[in-house]
């Protein structure tokens, strides 16, 4: 973990979550990627969940899991995915309860504090991450 980990701030508002969701959805639609997009607050609790037409059923559980993992670990889920790929002691992450260790979950930061997270699932992990980043850019 970083020497000075980010702090949690006041949770994302519904209006902010709507902006993040709109940005993410626009990116998914632009690429014709059927996605499930989840936004959680600082406690990892759902603020919004959006299932686009034709998104796979499995993503309904995975997207919120990615968001919850990103907020709980205070980092993008790609960092955890990469750690698992290194093997060795990093494989201990596999025992973390309720952690989704796939790219596509990203903390949402306002004024240097984590206010929630977005999780996206439906395509490849790097495509999921691209949609999540577009959501962050909309805030």
Description:
With 139 residues, the protein is of the alpha+beta class. It has one domain (7-137): Haem-degrading domain (Beta-Lactamase). The chain is built from four helices and five strands; from the N terminus they run βαββααββα. It has helices at residues 14-30, 59-73, 77-86, 125-137, and strands spanning 7-8, 36-40, 46-51, 105-110, 113-121. Strands 1, 2, 3, 4 and 5 form a five-stranded mixed sheet that branches.
Q: Number of domains in the coordinates? A: 1
CATH topology: Beta-Lactamase
Segments where pLDDT lies below 50 for 5+ residues?
Answer: none
Q: Judging by the overall fold, what is the CATH architecture?
A: 2-Layer Sandwich
Could you give me the name of the CATH homologous superfamily?
Haem-degrading domain
Strand residues, percent: 15-25%
Total helix count?
4
Shape: globular
Number of strands: 5
Note the run of SSEs as H and E. EHEEHHEEH
Largest sheet: 5 strands, mixed
Q: How helical, in percent, are the residues?
A: 25-40%
Radius of gyration: 14 Å
Rounded average pLDDT: 96
Calculate the terminal CA-CA distance, rounded to whole Å: 26 Å
CATH class: Alpha Beta
| Helix-and-strand structural type | alpha+beta
Descriptors:
alpha+beta, globular, Beta-Lactamase, 40% helix
Q: Brief description of this entry?
A:
By secondary structure, the chain is an alpha+beta fold. 40% of the residues lie in helices and 20% in strands. The protein has a single domain (7-137), classed as Haem-degrading domain (Beta-Lactamase, 2-Layer Sandwich), CATH 3.30.450.
